[in-house]
Amino acid sequence: MISFIEEYYAIGFRSAEIFAALSGIIFFKKYKYDKAAKYLIYFLIYVNVIEVIAHYPTLLQEEKSLKWLKDLLSGTAFLRNYWWYFIAWFIGSNVFFSFYYYLISESKKIQFYIKYLCFATVSVQLILFILFLRKLDYDFLIYTEVINLVVILFLVSTYFMQLINSEKLVIFYKTLPFYVTVAAFVFTITTTPLVFFERYFNLSDPDYISLKYVVNFFAIIFMYSLIGIGIIVSEAEVRK
Q1: Which among 80, 118, 144, 165 is least buried, having the fewest CB atoms inside 10 angstroms?
Q2: 24-28, 56-60, 210-214: which has the minimum mean pLDDT?
Q3: What's the mean pLDDT in 211-229?
Q4: Could you list the residue range(s) of the whole structural domain that residue 30 is in?
């Protein structure tokens, strides 16, 4: 099974990401007046763009015509795509999820907390990003993903607090934020522990490589498939 996952890893998670984005595009009209849902769809398209650009290290390895560029980037953070995921995914997802839950929150107080939590954490993550570029210390990746874990836990907890105390509780399965919340929560708590072992991600530790593939494979597929299903089955809400 592990060999199967390793062989079809990229196809599997890319298919899930594309499925979620296509679901959003196909059902975009349904969410015409749902501002939060529309930004979610934009984000899903953005995720696919991230993955396309993140493929550049493979091109540097395989395309002989790009050898000059590979030599130019040698010894810098830009030779690998960690820096790209650092700013495009870790920081980008922090900004998106904060903004998304800010839009769906019905509490001015919680919106206030979300806004300033986002500002504080993104500021710290940008500092960590600069330090990462200067020192190439992958511990900074760990710190920024732990920050994302804290942010997601806060957003998820505030969402469920509001859901429990609202009339939407009886129709939670028809609301898109429920699917987004479950998907983001499961993905974050299953993948974040892996970053603590990221420094050991090399060919001398095949057990960790297999574990990383399996966890990420199912976590990514679960998250984007659930969000895609949520887009299809949920009812739009009017948010301006």
Answers
A1: 165
A2: 210-214
A3: 93
A4: 2-233
User: Angle between the 35-53 and 92-104 helix axes, to the nearest 10 degrees?
Assistant: 170
Say if 33 falls within a structural domain. Answer: yes
Whether 124 is covered by a domain: the verdict is: yes
pTM over 0.85: yes
239 within a domain of the structure (yes/no): no
pLDDT tens, residue by residue, 72-96 = 988 888 988 989 999 999 999 999 9
pLDDT of residue 62: 87
Q: Name the amino acid, one letter, at 70.
A: K
In a domain, 238, yes or no: no
d(CA 14, CA 17): 5
What is the tally of structural domains in the chain? 1
Per-residue model confidence (pLDDT) at position 2: 65
